[in-house]
Structures are given as structure tokens and as C-alpha cells.
Amino acid sequence: MRVDTHRPLEVVDPASEKAFEELVGELDYPMLVVTASAHGTRSGCLVGFATQCSIDPPRYAVYLSVKNRTLAVASDATALGVHFLQDTDGDLAELFGGQTGDEIDKFDEVAWHEGSHGVPLIDRCPNRFVGRVVDRHVGGDHAGFVLEPIEVARALELSPLWFQRAKQIEPGHDA
Hints:
Layout: H1 14-25, E1 32-38, E2 41-47, E3 50-54, E4 59-65, H2 69-76, E5 79-84, H3 90-98, E6 112-114, E7 120-122, E8 128-138, E9 142-153, H4 163-166
């Protein structure tokens, strides 16, 4: 059977779409903050859609909402920062997921420094990497960025902040 990769599949049964939303809504996955800088503008957002997507070469994919200000900045960036939140980082999740960069500069609220390619790195997140953008694509209401790690920091045993804990955050933008 040949799969047509150029035509998206349509969910024609609303009951199936609702069942799918309920099914994946029960999954628990680590929450991340993705940061970007381009043309003198920096931005960052809470991300739940992310995964390693290649072993050799190493690649990681993150997906940003098309309604999010960070997407506009990331679209012009050569690299992104990916910060793995700890279970004690609920306030960072609230800041980067519950506030919009259209209204505040989130980086005024946290200690940060500039990493490779000018990417803003949040000091409180010692488990992080900067990834060079090697591919971009749209996956519906989110745009994907495939990243090649170029600067990696791992300082703590990872104890992730999970989606089920973070999903109560009122988003700064609709998904």
C-alpha cells in the first residue's frame, strides 16, 4: 500500500475526532520551554509537543502553535533553546505558557543569558540544549522545527514537569 504524503488525511467522523482528543489527552509527557532570538527580538513559550526524532544523526523535534508569538521569532531563528522543566518549575510553566509575549517580556521575569546563536537560555533550567534548525514544517495548528543539538547542558537528574500537571494553565494564546 502506498501512502500519499502530500495529501492530509481527513477525520470525517466527529465521534472519532472526539475520541482521539480524549485518548491523547490522557497521555503524560514532559513539558519544555522553547526560546528563540532573531533580529534583536527574543521570545519563549511552553511546549508539550516535542520528541527525539533521530538517533544517528541526533535530532529533536519541537512544535510551536501557529498562534504563538514565539513561532514568528523562531521562524527567523537559526537555532532554538529547549529547556527541560523540572517538577518544581510550575512557575516557569505558568510564565511561559500562561503569559503572552505580545503583552510582556517574559525574560524580564527570569535570570537568563545568551547561548549559541544568540539563543536566550534560562538559568534555572540546567537541563537544556541549543539546537540548530535543520528543517521546518507545518503539522496542522502547530509548526515543527527539527533541531540538531549544538550546545548541551545536563546538570540534574531529570524529574520532569508533566503535561497532566501543566494542562491546568490558562494559555496566553489559544492552541
